[in-house]
Every structure is written in structure tokens, then in C-alpha cells.
User: What shape does this take?
Amino acid sequence: MNNYSYEKLLKCNAIPVPTRNYDLVIIGCGASGFAATIKASEVSGGRASIAMVCKGPLGGTCVNVGCVPSKYLIEVSNRYFYSKRETKGVKLSAEVDFGTLMDGLREVVGELRREKYEDVLGYYPNVELVRGSASFAGPSRVRVKTEDGELELTGSRFIIGVGSRPSVPPIRGLGEVSYLTSDSVWELRELPRSLVVIGGGAIGLEIGQALAHLGSEVTIVEAMDRVIPVPRVETEVSTALAEYLEGEGLRVLVNSTVAEVKPEGRRKVVVVQRRGEVEKLKAEEVLVATGRRPNTDELGLDRAGVKSDRRGYVIVDEHMRTSNPRIYAAGDCAAKELMLETLAAREGVVAAVNALTGDRESVDYWGTPLVVFTTPQVASVGLTEEELMRRESAPAGPSSSTT
Assistant: This one.
């Protein structure tokens, strides 16, 4: 029976939707979902029945299009770039075969996905991996569209860990040209001779510097007054890093906004407004690295009584519980401030423990380290001077309390 006739019969109620019941249903198979799955199995002594719904590649952002490929590219590019620096008595030579380099990158991604995710699931017989796209059909059930049709999963508890995807701003003309994101850049076969990176956060700086080390002419365009414009990094550190990058040949433009992107032959023209002036940057490729957005669009959160904010992020309390007390959320889709693989995993663990045991564990966000893997690397933990001064100057009383 083909998919069309199957779906038609379902709508006519000619075929009942198969239903499976679980103690815990986890929607998502990235860092938060996978960590929640393992912890839930351990907490229950392997007795809890667990379903993990996986829409994309197992492992989510980190292993497939995030931490693993970016760190591979950074390491290889550093070896090449810094080996060319002259040292008295030592002469080295190297050349870049970019296509082969990227083949190696993708092979490592595949190997680690198998070793760290696919193979690990084999040790947890109480966990069932369900391939498909899930959406809530009610407060305690989800519908999953699989290759074979639809499946309904009911659960005593749920954890939402659907992650995020690159956020692309509404720049005039951007949709009419080909551009790269942190998801698609890993499919490159040729090294771009020139690159404009829109966004000076961790993703843009890491990929931008790596490609510059391999030979690209790179310009970073950041709308804020400094690179890495997150509250956790001191302004002086951001300034020092920008100066270092410029010393290596990258061009860093802050307080700069992109007004338009348009094609010009085989290149793209990025129109930048900066300090009241307009500058046209020409490059072979454009990398959009302007943040990420949650993958909650098609989850049907309203049908489950789960509240989200105007951007689509699931609203959770300090125990990772949503407005539906049976449903928890963790990772990028419930991000409070930082989107980090390690933080997502920790949130997944906390959500699993609280969901299955009724405990009220929480996450220490101010004790969570932030690292940007440029050269030099940037690390931060705790309060910055600006945040500390703001807290000390805040009026006393309930309104100034923080979690």
C-alpha cells in the first residue's frame, strides 16, 4: 500500500493508528534527548519503558553539524596555518586538498555518530528508537509520522529535546542567492577564495578563522559593538580577540549591519551599512551565522498545554518542567541563554531525573563554562564585571532576586 492510500484510509478512520504505551517518551535524539534517555534508563534500573523519537540523524547538532565537524576543521586548519610560520632552523611545507579534507571530516562524523550514539543504544534494551516526526495530539500522547505511516505514542511523562537550527535573518535578497549556514558548510567541496561571515558569535568566528587559515579571504560582519556579543564574555576579551584575528589577516567589522545581498556573476555582493556609510563586500561565499532558532514549529505544543515564548522556545521552570506538569523540556529548544552541547546534556539529565523520580533537581547556569574554540581560545564562567556591578546596584527586594 503506498503512502497516499495509507494516509487517505487513516483520514477516513478505515485503519486505526497503532498505539504504543511507555513510561517516558523523549522527543529528540540530540545531546539533551540522548542524555535524558540514558539517565532515565539508569535511574529506573532499566525497568522504565522509554521511547526516543528521532527525526534527523542520531546525535543531533553536535556530532553531525556542530561540535565534531567544527573542531575537526579547526584542528586541521591550525596545523596547516601555524606550520607555515617560520621558525629558525625549521622549514616545513604543506598544501591543502580541501575536497579530501572534507571527506575526512565527514568520515569522522560518521564514525563518532556510530560509536557514541548508535552503538551505545544497544546497551539499553528498554529503550526503543522510533524514527519519524512527532507532534502532540493531546496532553499525554504524540503522533509520529514514520516511513510506514503513523504511530501514536502515549506516555506517563514526556521530555522535549528537539534542538535548534540556524536562524536566517530577513535580509533583502538573501533568499535569492545561495548561502551557507553552520548546517550546510560541511558539504563544501571547494575552498572559497573569499568569504563574508554574517555574525560575529562563536560559530561565525570559529568557522571563519578555520577557513581563513586554509586560505580564504574572510570578512566578519557583526551588528553589535563587539564580537562574541554574549553577556558572559568581558568586553576587553572580545576586543583582544578581534585584534588578534585582524592580525592574522581576517577583517572584522563591528557596529555593521547587512542591508542587502545580491548576485554578481559567480560572486555575491554583501551591502553593509557601517558608521553611516555603505560598503559593498564581494565574495565567493556568504556564511550566515546569526544564531539559532528552536525546532518547535510543528510540535503542536498548544495541544499539549505547553507554553512557549514569542520566539518558539519552550518555557520551563528551574526543574526543566513545562506548563504541563507531565512534560519537561531540555536543550536548545528550551534555551535560557546559552546553547551548549554540554549544557543541553546536563539539562536532559535533570529533566529525566525529575520526570521519573519527582525530584526537584536544577541546573547551575552560572557555573556553566562557555568556550569559543578560536585561536586564541576564549573561556568564561560566572559573572562578568558588568553583570556583577549591575547586581550590586540593583534595589533590594523581591524584584531584584535571580535564579
User: Anything to note?
Assistant: Residues 174-290 form a domain with the FAD/NAD(P)-binding domain fold (CATH 3.50.50.60).
